[in-house]
Amino acid sequence: MNILRLLRSGTSGNRQFIIIVTSLSGLGNAGLVGLINQAAERSLLDEAISVQLMIVYLLTLFFFIVSNRSSLLHANRFVQSRLETMRRRVVNKIGKVDLRTLERMGQGDVYLTVAQETDHLSQTLPLIIGAAQSAFLLVFLILYIATLSLISFFVVAGFTVLGILFFLNRQKALTGYLGEVHYKEAELIDNLSHFTLGFQEIRLNANKNDALFEHFTNLTSDLKDAVLRDGGRWVTLLQFSNAFVFLLAGLVVFVLPIFFGGYTDTIYKIMAVSVFAVGPMAALTSVIRLLGRAEVGLGHVYDLERRLDEGLSPSGPKSPRQNSPFRNFSKIELSEAMFRYVDRENAITFAAGPLNLTLNRGEIVFMTGGNGSGKSTALKLLCGLYLPESGRVLCDGEEVTDTTRQQYREIYSAIFTDFHLFDRPYGMENVSTEEVERLIAKMELSDKVRFEKGRFTTRELSTGQRKRLAMISCLLEDREVYIFDEWAADQDGHFRDVFYREMLPDFKARGKTVIAVTHDDKYWDCCDRQVTLDLGMITMAGVN
Ligand SMILES: Nc1ncnc2c1ncn2[C@@H]1O[C@H](COP(=O)(O)OP(=O)(O)OP(=O)(O)O)[C@@H](O)[C@H]1O
């Protein structure tokens, strides 16, 4: 069971303490029921209720309150710390996974599982711990019945076990249906993103908006039907558990006295116990539904982790950049490198290679080729984001291996066409505000962006301006090799000039190596060499 797996992962000391206080709380609760019964019996027999009994009652109440509070607080803390560890572990794995694995998972799935499921678990798991207290109370109440009448005890215990077995059997079947609800919820959230991310398109096209809304309406209706179907099944099961308590009480009160003499004295005590059992029983059965939901949710998180584990890159040294032997490279090579994209059915959708490419230190290389010819793919292979299926990546003749790959990647800084603009220069916390402001001015963004409290004041910029902001982070990183994938395509004529005529020579003067994808034939004199790709093959790798 996934929930047990999560709870077992904490320190055993904490867990044992929670089990002890939770059972003590159940014991205190059952003790209160027993004391109330005793006091009621005395009133019935016209006997005075002793001060001693009252004191014992108050002490038991105090004991119950303290143990109950301690159990709930510690359990909540324990569950939240387990979830925190799990969130960190999953996100840490995302940061270490191989790019292709992440691309194939789909961002929606990753986001939903990490954000939504863990949030859901953080709300439901503490309730489940509360229900564990109810379970302990029920056990103690049944044991208390044993002190009143052994026959009732065996009847109640026997029927309770049968009832629990039936309940668990049905509950397991119903949990299976929850998976259907989860996938419908995920589909709905995915569809919702079309309204936000595709807002501009649907505002310009009423038919598109209406069709999208109709699709969304169908999905909400499907989800509602699935939730109602699931809810209906649960109502039946809840009704069963509620009726079960009363059937059991009826059996003890109406049927047993017919067969066993001298039993009537204890009936009202057992009745009182039954009344006290109704609340915990109802609490327990209603929480079991949440338990099923939490179990399914945790299953998704563990499944995501398993898939991440499959694509985890082997970890290299702790500070890969500082210790990187590749920083002093003279020559980088792709040698007979092959790479293929495959779809979910493992059908090949694009094959690149065998690619043979040499990059010398300090060179400015332009990469050209038609759309979909494999330029970005080749660059991702070159910088170690993709792993060649066959062939090698060599640095000064030494093959880049699983253990050295991260050190190798650390010599690169890249702006791909699907780049992400971070709100601050992460990993460069000590960078001076003056230096960033100087680069903002150099990128001619001073009237748009400032650098305050370690972050850029805005990212709401035009595409070309966003790319210039990304360039600032690249420059701050001060790496040995720069990859620019059609960086200049979104710049105006003036800034293209700045890029080709000022920035590239400046990179070269500082000994940096640049490989830039470009279609700007006007600037071909600005490179040392051109490489052209077609259908995943290098068709030209000549000298300018
Ligand atoms: N993440 C991906 N998953 C599956 N297939 C992909 C992926 N990225 C690219 N492809 C496929 O690989 C082929 C080469 O894509 P790539 O992006 O390398 O070409 P490109 O030359 O950079 O194209 P463009 O000039 O349009 O940016 C394309 O046909 C594309 O369909």
From TrEMBL:
Domain ABC transporter: 332-543
Biological-process GO terms, alphabetical: peptide transport
Name of a matching Pfam family: ABC_tran
Example of a GO MF term: ATP binding
Subcellular location per the Swiss-Prot or TrEMBL entry: Cell membrane
Keyword Transmembrane helix assigned: yes
Keywords: ATP-binding, Membrane, Nucleotide-binding, Transmembrane, Transmembrane helix, Transport
SMART domains, per database record: AAA (SM00382)
Domain of life of the native organism: Bacteria
Keyword tRNA-binding: no
Gene3D superfamilies to which the protein is assigned, alphabetical: ABC transporter type 1, transmembrane domain, P-loop containing nucleotide triphosphate hydrolases
Transmembrane segments: 17-36, 48-67, 125-145, 151-168, 243-264, 270-291
Bilayer topology term: Multi-pass membrane protein
Start and end residues of each ABC transmembrane type-1 domain: 17-293
GO cellular component: ATP-binding cassette (ABC) transporter complex
Major localization class: membrane
NCBIfam families linked to this entry: cyc_pep_trnsptr
PANTHER family in the cross-refs: ABC TRANSPORTER ATP-BINDING_PERMEASE PROTEIN YOJI, HEAVY METAL TRANSPORTER
Protein name: Cyclic peptide export ABC transporter
Organism per entry: Roseibium limicola
Lineage: Bacteria, Pseudomonadati, Pseudomonadota, Alphaproteobacteria, Hyphomicrobiales
